Amino acid sequence: QVQVEESGGGLVQAGGSLRLSCGVSGRTLEIDNVGWFRQAPGKEREFVASVYWSGGTTTYAHSVKGRFTVSKDNARLTVYLQMNNLSPEDTAIYYCAAYRYGTSTYDSWGQGTQVTVSS
After folding, report:
1. Distance between terminal CA atoms of the chain?
2. Whole-number Å distance between alpha carbons of 113 and 1
3. What separation in angstroms does the CA of 47 have from each of 4, 13, 62, 97?
4. Of the residues 16, 34, 99, 112, which has the maximum number of CB atoms within 10 A of its CB?
5. Rounded CA gap, 22 and 45, in Å?
């Protein structure tokens, strides 16, 4: 089993920045990829960004490319999402999730952290 837990959400003004953290625990050697997702009120959950745990290759949704950066610290067992130039459209609950080697399905999810961007 792999466990993930998000932290770092909050309220920020438009144009501001926040950094989210995702701590991973459990069978961390089995982790292949860690992703960030978000769900805004009344909308479906959407992919934001991801990073491969070993190689570090990153992927971004078009809507956040150039503004958000995903990174990892394997020693600290933490994945970060640096969010810059935030807009009210980024308001959502942000979730961290992981999938293990041999699968491509995110099956370990955190409880989420609220990000609210005021105009």
Report:
1. 40
2. 21
3. 16, 23, 10, 10
4. 34
5. 18
Q: If you write DSSP's letter for every residue of 36-55 in order, what string do you get? A: EEEE-TTS--EEEEEEETTT
Encode 63-84: b = buried (16+ Cβ within 10 Å), e = exposed. ebeeebbbebeeeebbbbbebe
How does pLDDT run across 33-89, given as a tens digit for each residue?
Answer: 999 999 999 999 999 999 999 989 999 999 999 999 999 999 999 999 999 999 999
Q: How far apart are CA 55 and CA 114, in angstroms?
A: 29
- Burial of 34 from C-beta contacts in 10 A (0-12 / 13-18 / 19+): buried
pLDDT digits (tens, 9 = 90+) for 12-41: 999 999 999 999 999 999 999 999 999 999
From the number of C-beta atoms within 10 Å of its C-beta (0-12, 13-18, 19+), residue 22 rates as buried
